[in-house]
Structure formats: structure tokens, C-alpha cells
Design goal:
single chain, four-stranded parallel sheet, Rossmann fold, alpha/beta, three-stranded parallel sheet
């Protein structure tokens, strides 16, 4: 038996429409098989709290093996997994094509799907993952002001902790009634001749994402300004639903399917018109690059979107390699601490944000490849807030030691999580904003 695989890892499709997928007895059997391998290996102990939880269950059992752990306690492990995929991508030596065929994130997703099907996922978690309802209500002008004020009020936060499982200490995002879509209404894409570069075709449709549209519209505007400064016309998608990542993380695969039925036809239509697709949130890009293709391996439309969606800095690097990137920068950025989000790392595109920002004269990029512990809801829920903060502390310590001029992360939620533990020289925490600043636009 080989200790590990030397071959490139591969992901098998998610067989989520098979009735066996939701068979709890078969699920528990597969969890036992995988957990037994993990306990004998323990390489992933430095990642999320799922692995320490598993190892503690075994080490505190009578047999000191997985057979000494009650099967219902397996779900304690599931509760700590936030689907970052790093165990599969960076740590596990037994992933396919190794004969042990170990895909830890996939069995965690299956467990969440079984729980969701049985109505065992918390109502508060379902509400927190429903970005559609949040966006509709929280962007009403008067309502957004009330919500933002309530999120800063200690008394209101105590109530939210009991009602929605939101830790009263957690930093909650601001809601904007002046959304990205409202700001962009009436704007026309720059009129320039599109030039192809590598797999890019020179004009981009922005999938706004729930977060950029409602919570951080400035980031979406910065992307548009930077791209059009590089003669890349940008338009928004005509319509869109949530990418589906928040629902995927809850095991609500039927709602993911519902969102797909709106998003994929819209995106493939734009692709057929000659537009590439970009999104400023790594999780949303990953959803279309990996998760939906694994759910729909035989759907040509899903696979088409996979081939034509890009991380913004991945897109700009392709332009630079073709000599099409504007490198006339007007302002140095000094030392930049760049936190690499997990959902960007697992796209396997390399440090593209660093590659672009390093082109700015007088700029040094310090890379931090360690999880911030936020993961959307994990970092704000009452049951996981403390663990999230513990995961973030080493990252915060690294930034302090760097004495950097800026702290940025492509994930705005991760950036906020880290920045909350720092006294920063500057308020900008997104690399697209820094790039706009370097250009002087």
C-alpha cells in the first residue's frame, strides 16, 4: 500500500441526485471509513476545527479508535467544516486517484445535505445563508439605515444573538441602499476594440455577487474602473441570483439548483455574445469554476461557464502576458500584507493578485497563506465565533510583525475579520481598491 499519491488530484462528480446520496446509514458508513483514515494520518490538524474535533472524539473514546465513537457524534465534526476545500487541495495524500479515494469536503457536504433533507439544519443558519431575502429587505433606504444602526447597538445585538445565533461581538457587514446595480444603472461600457489575450477575449461581464452588490459596492466599482482603465469594457449581467455558495454550505442543494436555472442561461448568453465573466468575490468564482461543474458534470452550459469565468487578477495577468496591461502607475503602495483567501487558493490559479500588485514600483507584497477563520457565517455565529477568532489570531500576528502599510484580502469578509484585530495605517483592504489607487483613478 502506497503512503500517498504522487499523481495530480482529481475530483469525482457529486452524485447528489442518486437516492443513496441521502441514505443516512450509507453516509455514516462512508464517514466511518474516511474518519478512520484521517485519524491514522492527522496531517490536517492545522486546518479548520473539524479535524481537532474528530481527533478529540477518538482520543477520548474507550477504544481510542473510530469504532469507539458514537455515529451521531460524527455530526460534531460536520458542524466545524466550512467547506474551504484546503484539506483536499493542500494536505491529504489519499485523494483520488489514490485507491483510498478520500474526499473529506465531499462527505461533509453530503452529511449537511442529509441533515438539511431531514430538517436538522438550524433555522437561523438557513436565514443567514439566504442572501436573496437579506438583499431585498436590507437595501430599502430607510430599512438599511435601521439595520446598520441596529447592528451597532449592543442591546439589539444581544437580541440577535438569541434569535439568529449571531454572536453579539461579531462584526456584521454594512448594507447599502445605494447598491452596485443602482450605482451602475445607465452607465455604458467603454467603447474600445476588444483584444484577446490567452483565454480572455477583452470584454467582461461582471457577476455582481450578493456581497458586492449590497455590502461592498465600492469594490465592484473599483473593478469596473480598473478594467476600463485597461481598455476592457465592463457591463453587469442583466440579471442574477446568488451564486449558491451559502446554500451549498448548508447542504441545501435544491436551492443551489434553483439559482443555477437563472444564472447559467444568463451567463452562457453573455459568453455567446463575446463577453467573459468576472466576479470580485472568490467564493462566487469558485462556485462556477468547481462546485457547479461537479454537481452537473454533463451539462454543457455549466461547463462553458467554468471555462469563461475568471478571478479579476487572473484576468489581468493574462492581459499582462500579452502586453496589454497598463503599467503606468502613479502611486507606490509600500509594503502590502496580502492575505490569500482559501476559496481563491483552491482555484489553482497561483498568486495572481501578488503578480499584478508587484508591478507597482516601490511596492513589496508580503503573502499570508493561512485561513482567516471567517467563512461567511462561521465567523459570526454564536457557536463558532470564538473558534473563528482563534483561527484568525496567527494571521493578525503575522500582519503586525510585517508592519505593513496596507492589509488586503481578495475576500472582503476575511479582510474585515483580520482588520478588526489591527490598527491599520490605511483603511483600504481590497486589492482592487489598491490597484485603482496605484493608477491614480
Amino acid at each position: 500500500m502506497r503512503e500517498g499519491s504522487l499523481e495530480a488530484p482529481t475530483r469525482h462528480p457529486l452524485d447528489w441526485k442518486n437516492p443513496d446520496f441521502y441514505d443516512e446509514e450509507k453516509l455514516l458508513g462512508e464517514m466511518e471509513r474516511i474518519f478512520d483514515i484521517c485519524v491514522g494520518c492527522r496531517r490536517c490538524v492545522s486546518l479548520c476545527d473539524a479535524f481537532p474535533t474528530l481527533f478529540d472524539l477518538v482520543d477520548e473514546s474507550e477504544t481510542l479508535e473510530i469504532d469507539g465513537v458514537a455515529k451521531q457524534d460524527y455530526f460534531q465534526v460536520v458542524d466545524q467544516c466550512y467547506m474551504c476545500d484546503l484539506c483536499f487541495q493542500t494536505k491529504c495524500p489519499y485523494v483520488p486517484p489514490h485507491e483510498w479515494n478520500l474526499d473529506f469536503p465531499k462527505v461533509m457536504l453530503r452529511a449537511k445535505a442529509v441533515q438539511f433533507k431531514k430538517g436538522q439544519r438550524k433555522l437561523s443558519h438557513k436565514l443567514l445563508s439566504n442572501t436573496k431575502i437579506q438583499g431585498k429587505i436590507a437595501t430599502i433606504p430607510v430599512v438599511s439605515n435601521l439595520i446598520n444602526a441596529g447592528n451597532r447597538n449592543k442591546g439589539v445585538r444581544k437580541v440577535l444573538e438569541k434569535a439568529l445565533d449571531l454572536d453579539h461581538r461579531a462584526h456584521l457587514p454594512q448594507f447599502h441602499s445605494d447598491t452596485l446595480r443602482r450605482r451602475d444603472k445607465g452607465r455604458q461600457p467603454a467603447v474600445v476594440e476588444a483584444q484577446a489575450a490567452g483565454p480572455t477575449r477583452g470584454k467582461a461581464a461582471l457577476f455582481t455577487t450578493c456581497y458586492c452588490n449590497v455590502n461592498t459596492p465600492d469594490i465592484g466599482q473599483d473593478l469596473i474602473r480598473v478594467f476600463e482603465h485597461n481598455n476592457i469594457p465592463v457591463r453587469l449581467t442583466r440579471k442574477e441570483e446568488c451564486c449558491g455558495m451559502p446554500k451549498l454550505e448548508q447542504g441545501d442543494l435544491e436551492t443551489v439548483d434553483k439559482y443555477r436555472k437563472t444564472n447559467i442561461p444568463e451567463l452562457t448568453g453573455l459568453i455567446d455574445e463575446g463577453w467573459d465573466i468576472v466576479a470580485a468575490i472568490p467564493s462566487c468564482v469558485l462556485m462556477f469554476k468547481q462546485e457547479l461543474p461537479l454537481m452537473y458534470p454533463d451539462d454543457p452550459s455549466v461547463q462553458k461557464v467554468k471555462q469563461h469565468i475568471f478571478d479579476p487578477f487572473e484576468y489581468l495577468v493574462h492581459r499582462h502576458k500579452a502586453g496589454l496591461l497598463n503599467t503606468q502607475f502613479k502611486q507606490s503602495l509600500g509594503t502590502v500584507a496580502w492575505h490569500v483567501p482559501c476559496h481563491q487558493r483552491v482555484q489553482n490559479i497561483g498568486p495572481k493578485t501578488k503578480d499584478v500588485l508587484s508591478l507597482v514600483p516601490g511596492t513589496k507584497i508580503e503573502v499570508i497563506e493561512r485561513c482567516s477563520g471567517h467563512d461567511g457565517t462561521y465567523g459570526v455565529r454564536a457557536g463558532t465565533y470564538e473558534k473563528s477568532q482563534k483561527i484568525a489570531r496567527p494571521v493578525i500576528k503575522r500582519v503586525k510583525e510585517m508592519n505593513a502599510d496596507y492589509l488586503v484580502s481578495d475576500c472582503p469578509m476575511a479582510a474585515t475579520q483580520i482588520a478588526d484585530g489591527l490598527e491599520l495605517k490605511h483603511g483600504e483592504t481590497n486589492p482592487l481598491t489598491l490597484l485603482r489607487k496605484a493608477y491614480g483613478i
